[in-house]
User: Which sequence fits this backbone?
């Protein structure tokens, strides 16, 4: 089976968040299930620099008035189509923002171009490789099912995966005449969304199947609290929606072979984590012998970082230390930096993102804090489980699906892997921290938590099988 995956970022070429990790790991996992998956990605400067020599497989004379080429390359096992359209993608800044952090004003056109190119590939733009199914990711690829339904490849099945329904790609209706869609597409049954144009809304409306990145999140987005205005559409299409929990690339995230670590280790060699702990303490200027809590996150309200700022003093008061890596809201960044200045040697903050440092933090910290108000899946808790870093998570979305709470029954049965808390407030986090410190004081129980987590199956094996089964059902229906 041939499947085209369409994503705005992909690891290891370009990454701003978990979408890139999923887009990079899923194609490799699908090969074990009889699926040949190729990925269409934008030709950002970082991508063009890293992929090196490519082969031109198609030319689009006018893609919204711009000449574009589709290039093919195999990079680190990934079979990639790169949309080489310099007018859209060769610019300074990140994938979505300029050098000053402001959204590119033509994001609507840039990602419409990506989506339209995917639909043309589905329709046979590259005769040597025509997909049986197209899998679009998030709002940036939300128009793929729309373009396919409106004439490009109406018979080819499509899947759209919602990685975070809070990001929807909502634009002024003034752009509609430039999208190369028929007038009827701008309707409540198409891409019209509260008077605007909704890219994710259109994808959810038109795709043959909808997936989210965890079963709990699939249920949560039926509710107004989590659906972000799209809950009515999700409920209407409930029979076409399902949740498939993310996995991680266990070759990249392997504490026995990870080249980024100060010391490799396994569940049978937990004492070797000590060198990584020392590296974390050095980097963040920490001093103490209590547990190290880490945070590797966007510093935003969604991620509960305001709750962390309130509870940070409790960690210090109970003898713990806190290492924070991330960036986001300036006010939250400032609050956490201020907490670090008040508690020198006990709290350290690194504003920004550093992939190698994130690996060392997972390998050297004792616990990771993820107090998210909502979390479609989350990947950091999966990395943490793999590295013996005990997750402390809010009971929501994929966090609830992937961490077994260390309640009395789970501890007695020897199956607990972390800590959950359901009242997502600063007090709820404080209560969870009290439980963590209680278990920490029992070294045998703590080691068992670590070993249980490291034995958890966080790979793509089961999830890839679920996607393969979904693809097969959709393709067989089409035939």
Assistant:
């Amino acid at each position: 089976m041939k499947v085209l995956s369409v994503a705005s970022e992909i690891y290891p070429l370009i990454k701003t968040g978990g979408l890139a990790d999923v887009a990079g790991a899923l194609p490799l996992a699908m090969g074990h299930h009889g699926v040949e998956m190729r990925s269409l990605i934008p030709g950002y400067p970082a991508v063009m620099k890293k992929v090196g020599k490519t082969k031109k497989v198609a030319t689009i004379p006018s893609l919204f008035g711009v000449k574009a080429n589709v290039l093919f390359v195999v990079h680190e096992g990934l079979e990639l189509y790169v949309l080489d359209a310099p007018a859209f993608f060769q610019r300074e800044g990140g994938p979505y923002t300029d050098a000053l952090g402001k959204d590119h004003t033509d994001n609507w056109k840039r990602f419409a171009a990506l989506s339209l190119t995917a639909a043309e590939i589905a329709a046979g733009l590259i005769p040597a490789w025509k997909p049986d199914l197209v899998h679009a990711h998030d709002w940036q690829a939300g128009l793929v099912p729309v373009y396919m339904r409106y004439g490009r490849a109406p018979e080819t099945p499509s899947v759209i995966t919602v990685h975070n329904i809070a990001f929807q790609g909502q634009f002024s209706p003034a752009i509609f005449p430039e999208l190369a869609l028929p007038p009827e597409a701008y309707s409540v049954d198409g891409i019209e969304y509260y008077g605007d144009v909704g890219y994710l809304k259109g994808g959810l409306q038109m795709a043959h199947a909808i997936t989210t990145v965890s079963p709990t999140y699939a249920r949560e987005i039926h509710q107004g609290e989590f659906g972000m205005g799209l809950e009515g559409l999700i409920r209407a299409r409930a029979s076409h929606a399902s949740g498939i929990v993310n996995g991680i690339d266990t070759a990249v995230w392997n504490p026995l072979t990870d080249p980024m670590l100060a010391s490799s280790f396994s569940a049978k060699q937990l004492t070797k984590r000590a060198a990584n702990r020392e590296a974390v303490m050095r980097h963040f200027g920490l001093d103490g012998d209590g547990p190290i809590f880490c945070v590797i996150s966007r510093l935003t309200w969604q991620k509960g970082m305001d709750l962390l700022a309130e509870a940070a003093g409790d960690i210090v008061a109970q003898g713990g230390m806190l290492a924070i890596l991330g960036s986001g809201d300036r006010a939250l960044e400032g609050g956490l930096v201020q907490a670090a200045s008040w508690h020198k040697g006990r709290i350290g903050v690194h504003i920004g993102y550093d992939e190698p440092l994130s690996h060392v933090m997972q390998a050297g910290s004792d616990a990771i804090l993820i107090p998210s108000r909502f979390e479609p899946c989350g990947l950091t808790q999966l990395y943490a489980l793999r590295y013996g870093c005990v997750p402390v998570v809010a009971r929501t979305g994929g966090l609830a699906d992937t961490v077994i709470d260390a309640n009395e029954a789970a501890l007695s049965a020897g199956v607990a892997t972390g800590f959950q808390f359901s009242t997502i407030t600063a007090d709820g986090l404080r209560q969870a921290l009290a439980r963590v410190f209680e278990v920490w004081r029992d070294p045998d129980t703590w080691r068992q938590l670590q070993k249980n987590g490291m034995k958890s199956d966080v790979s793509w094996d089961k999830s890839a099988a679920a996607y393969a089964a979904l693809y097969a059902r959709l393709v067989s229906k089409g035939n």
